[in-house]
Structures
1.
Amino acid sequence: MRLLVCGGAGFIGSNFVRLRARDHGDEVVVLDKLTYAGRRENLADVEHEFVHGAIEDPDAVERAIEGCDAVVNFAAETHVDRSITEPDAFIRTHAQGTFVLLEAVRRRALRFVQVSTDEVYGSIESGSFTETSPLNPSSPYSATKAGADLLVAGYVHTYGLEACICRGSNNYGPRQYPEKLIPLMVLNALHGDPLPVYGDGMQVRNWLYVEDFGRGIGHVLEHGRPGEAYNVGGPDECPNIEVVQRIIELTGSSPDLIEHVTDRPGHDRRYSLSSDKLRELGWEAQVRFAEGLERTVDWYRSQQWWWEPIRSGAYREYYERQYGRALG
Ligand code: NAD
Ligand code: DAU
């Protein structure tokens, strides 16, 4: 099929484009605004057409969607810490952007998958969220993602749009921008920089290897029932401090690098997803956390060409603002 992938130059989107173009033989068009997180390098080895533009720009969307059979929307601002200090772009992209895409899809009666997050459910002390759990977001990031989910649901209900929502848990793997926990800790550990753990580090995340999320989204695109949401959770949960300790072991760095820093405001304590509904549809996560983390550390260790321009550029200013200290 000819597939429009919005936000396909980012971490998960580019892995998904690779999967669809190589394993499924799809003709892929990528529409991406190329924010700090979007990089053409992420797609250098994959055949695709590229349209540079924003999902909130109706002209760019019209150019990109021409001749497509389906649309998958990854385009988003994705870092919770940035949503706390500068929420504007989150509102524009998630609300206005999703609206513009939905209108274009509605006019053509195309199939649509909205990529969403477990964060729309908020934090859970014990047990796991199912697709019928109430939406209870905590940050400007998750609140605007939840808003986009509700808009999609409204278009399904009112216009009969053939749309599904995929709610993923914390992804990790190659090409993740080093503002997120795992790549930040791996690169800091490799450089001997301090490892900034928020609060007590006992917050728990449900880790999902990026290729497993891509396979889940593809599965929903092909087999999902229109109007339904599907959770896509990882096979393992792990407290942050343990993730950092494993990275120290894998990189051979010193535990003395760990530094407990001021906690994130409104920090969600635990995420956990039940993926039974997608499992019934035939999907299963294939990569356990121990194996995926080792692969990820190996990738960052060997792909300096990818992270060097980030780590020596505007990221340094972001890091200094966020952590109150310079990178080494
Ligand atoms: P990312 O930040 O690596 O990439 C986002 C991409 O979207 C970038 O290429 C960026 O340039 C593009 N983009 C941003 N705003 C845009 C706009 N207005 N128009 C067009 N393109 C725009 O993000 P990611 O981690 O790959 O996340 C992709 C999607 O998956 C997001 O919707 C996110 O909410 C969701 N998600 C992420 C995770 C995770 O752990 N990273 C987990 C579950 C769900
Ligand atoms: O759960 C899915 C979500 O996972 C996605 O929707 C988001 O786009 C993605 O960014 C991610 O959100 P988190 O806030 O969970 O991820 P992050 O990597 O920012 O942080 C993971 C945990 O690690 C969280 O408890 C905060 C903590 N942390 C993070 C950073 C960057 C630290 O302790 N220190 C850090 O320096």
Note: DSSP finds twelve helices and twelve strands in the chain.
2.
Amino acid sequence: MTDCVFCKIVAKQIPATVVFEDGDTLAFMDIGQVNPGHVLVAAKAHCENVYALDDAQAGAVFRAVARVARAVRAAFAPPGLSIYQANGKPAGQTVFHFHVHLVPRHDGDGMNLTWPVKNPPREKLEEYAAKIRGALG
Ligand code: 5GP
Ligand code: ZN
């Protein structure tokens, strides 16, 4: 896609600091570096979000995520690692080309995701699950 920043990185039209590459994925340093070692694993093809991935791309991306995560752990020994992936503006997506964040984590590092649990009754879980099962392809 012509004005997509990650497509430009994949096409080497703009620079990025690459750590890993295979046929379907490119992993490079996030320019913002929430903590040192913050890497993005992106699909090489322009897929806007998780819904656009085919099975081969989805498999390739998570293989790359796990492999790069092991390397980040070996390189930085962070006490924690968050894997974060946003789809759509309400989820916090700002670059609309599928990517996964690997963020090394430290106590008190200021990164925050509030998690407002609702703890609904079991019948609600059954109702929600039935909807999802019915929608599975
Ligand atoms: P999102 O909010 O969509 O999950 O994350 C987008 C990420 O892309 C941000 O963390 C931002 O720092 C990173 N980013 C945006 N533009 C560039 C760029 O040109 N190069 C690199 N390496 N990262 C970028
Ligand atoms: Zn793109």
Note: Strands lie at 18-21, 25-29, 39-43, 80-84, 99-105.
3.
Amino acid sequence: MGVDMAECIFCKIISGQIPSAIVHSDDNFFVFLDINPANKGHTLVIPKKHYETFNDMPAEEVWHLFETVQKVSKAVEKGLRADGYNILISNKRPAGQEVDHIHVHVIPRYKGDEMAVRLGWNYKKYDEGEAKAVADRIKKNL
Ligand code: AMP
Ligand code: ZN
């Protein structure tokens, strides 16, 4: 982690140094198409301010980010006649984050689209009493 801002590919996209298919740009957010779409219309929503992960964003800005994500999601769904969509944020390498500038993926989905989901998971099973212990560990850190 920790590519500095001057080298950040998404900061370069925001400044126009690297071209992108722009969907929307305002004072705080930038919205553009992912260059390797999981489905056509796979869109990225990013804050213009460089934050590495979701953890680093002030709550106030998260609120505004998700307002934009919701607007964009509706537009993706309607504009591309999708049957649904996924919203995804990958945080840090083990979770699949490749670009260290927080971004929200909005991916249109179609009935039977067989989109390759990189984040498929195998269900794990909790032992007796373990679910409560796990929930408590999260709760203690809220
Ligand atoms: P993540 O794996 O969540 O960090 O996602 C990074 C995303 O950025 C990937 O889906 C890439 O396809 C996308 N990406 C990388 N470079 C560019 C670029 N120049 N323009 C548009 N999307 C990009
Ligand atoms: Zn950046």
Note: The pocket of adenosine monophosphate (ligand 1) is lined by residues 9, 18, 20, 34-36, 90, 96-99 (CB under 6 Å).
4.
Amino acid sequence: MGRDHRRGGNSGIDPAELAAFRQDVVAGLSLPQKALPPKHFYDAAGSRLFERICRLPEYYLTRTELALTRAHLGAIARFTGKGGALLEYGSGESLKTHLMLRAMRPAVYMPVDISGDALDAAVARLAREFRGLRIVPVIGDFTRPLDLPPLPGRGRRVVYFPGSTIGNLTPQEAQAFLRTTRGQVGPRGAMLVGVDLKKDAGILHAAYNDSRGVTAAFNLNLLARINRELGGDFDLRRFSHYAFYNAPLGRIEMHLVSLRDQTVNVGDHRFAFARGESIHTENSYKYSVAEFRAIAAQADFRGEKVWTDAKGLFALHGLLAA
Ligand code: AVJ
């Protein structure tokens, strides 16, 4: 189903994805502050590690958003309306997607993900569970402009973007992304977006420095992936996971810190690291309800509804085209 929208084969590594990965790594490790985009965390091993993160006691985000979605499902479905088109940035593998599809009963569901394999698996399962649902999978990357097939149907168009993935973008990038989304859903459209809230720095610190070291393994897997796919020779014992809350900027930063002066090869490229120098691997922005609504307003979305948990950990925003 929908293979005509698809980029490549379904076994091994997609050559286009590999080329993009190589380009990002060479460019990112050539910067004065070395940096790698977090989207490359999610190879098969990284996706498994992320699923383990989601089950960690310290990582409150996933379970809080799920509980929130369950608790308010009726109100969320009244907000989206039924029978429209649901576009999700993410593969649709999550339990939250099932809940949303069951409550909203859209005519069309369009999952957008960079992993063709993840899409294949999710589409097969959803097609079995939701007979009659038109599923249009799209391989794509929400951080880049994306040519989507037109969303069919005359019902409301709703974009679902759970998981606080929007936190990976800077506020400026988030605003531009919301503006693109606003164009996709049109004048009667809506968006449901999961956003991690600002909170006590100790809670944030624990969530990104878990006691079992799963987040550290997730971060370091990026170097293992470079070794596996790009012929790198990173010695993982010579780098360490470092995550902290940058309060002035309102974000968790993740880095990989070089434990000594060293040189690393990636294919034909050589990169020098001083002891203590880091690769910045992820930002995870945290927004108060008012801060996020202000960004949405700049993109012509009005904050219509917001659902939060009792502890004020996580927010699900219901935005309407303004
Ligand atoms: C998937 C981007 C929401 O920022 O919390 C989890 C990724 N990184 N632990 C986040 C992540 C380290 C996660 N997002």
Note: The radius of gyration is 20 Å.
